[in-house]
Amino acid sequence: MQQLVFATNNAHKLHEVAEKIKDRLKILSLDDIGCYDDIPEIGQTFHDNASIKSHHVHQKYKINCFADDSGLEVDALNGEPGVHSARYSGKYGDHDANMTKLLRELGSNANRKARFRTVISLILNNEEHFFEGTVEGTIRHERAGTGGFGYDPVFQPDGYDKTFGEMTLEQKNHISHRARAVDQLVAFLNDPAIALNAS
Ligand code: IMP
Q1: Per the residue annotation, which of 31, 48, 69, 152 is the catalytic one?
Q2: Which domain holds residue 72?
Q3: Is residue 116 within 6 Å of ligand 1 at its C-beta?
Q4: Burial (CB count <10 Å: 0-12, 13-18, 19+), residue 75
Q5: Structural domain contains residue 197
Q6: What CA dihedral angle connects 82, 118, 164 and 84, to 10 degrees?
Q7: Which atom of ligand 1 lies nearest, measured to the CA of 70?
Q8: pTM greater than the 0.90 cutoff
Q9: How many separate domains does the chain show?
C-alpha cells in the first residue's frame, strides 16, 4: 500500500485522517519517518505555515506528504489571534492563558463573530494542493465546558447552543474546520484518477 506522511506528531489528528483513508493509503507520522526537526511556523498565513511544514518534509525525505495549520480568527480583533493562536498569550500551547487574553481583548465588544480555519498543504508527485475548512461561530463572554482543547470552551458554532467545549468529540468532529478540510483532502486522495505511486 502507498504511504503518505502527515507532518504532525499529534496522534489524535493522525488517527482521524488515517481512519478515513485506511483502505487506500497508509498514513505515517513524523515519528514514523524519524523526523524530529523543530519546523519553524513563521508564516503570515495558515497557507504559509502548512506549506512550510509540507515542503520541509518533502524536500528532506523525498516522500509525498501533507501538513495542516489551524487557528481562530476573531472579526473584532482584525482576524487575531490567527496564526498566533497557539501562542497568543506569549506561552506556546497555554490554552487557558490564551483564552483569558482573548476574552480580555474582546471585553464587552458586541461583535463576537469568529471562525476556526484549517488549511492543509499536500505535496503529491511534486505538486502542491491546498484544502481548506472553516466553521463560523461566536465567542462567548465566559468559558463553558471542559471538552476539546484550545479555544473550544469559548467558541460556539453557528446553529448550536453549545460551545465546542460542551460537545462530545464526535459532535465536534462532525462540523469542525479540521474535519471539513480533511474531508476535502480525503475526497481528493480517494479519486481513482489520482496517481499515488510517485513521490
Ligand atoms: P494547530 O495548527 O492545529 O496546531 O492549531 C493551532 C492553535 O489554534 C491551537 O493551539 C489552538 O489554540 C487553536 N485551535 C486550532 N484548532 C482548534 C480547535 O479545534 N479548537 C480549539 N482551538 C483550536
Answers
A1: 69
A2: 3-189
A3: yes
A4: middle
A5: no
A6: -20
A7: 2
A8: yes
A9: 1
58 within a domain of the structure (yes/no): yes
Are 1 and 169 within 8 A, CB to CB?
no
- Residue 42 maps to a domain: yes
CB atoms within 10 A of CB 37: 11
pLDDT tens across 7-51, in order? 998 888 898 888 888 888 999 999 999 999 988 888 999 999 999
Three-state SS at 73 = strand
Best mutation site among 149, 172, 176 for ligand 1, i.e. most ligand atoms within 8 A of its Cβ? 149
Instruction: Name the β-bridge partners of 157.
Output: 137
**Ligand 1: residue whose CA is nearest its atom 5:** 70
159, amino acid identity: G
Cell numbers representing residue 140 in the block: 462567548
CATH of the domain at 162: 3.90.950.10
Q: Three-state SS for 48?
A: helix
Q: Is 183 a catalytic residue?
A: no
List, for residues 131-169, the tens digit of each pLDDT value: 999 999 999 999 999 998 999 999 999 999 999 999 998
52: in domain: yes
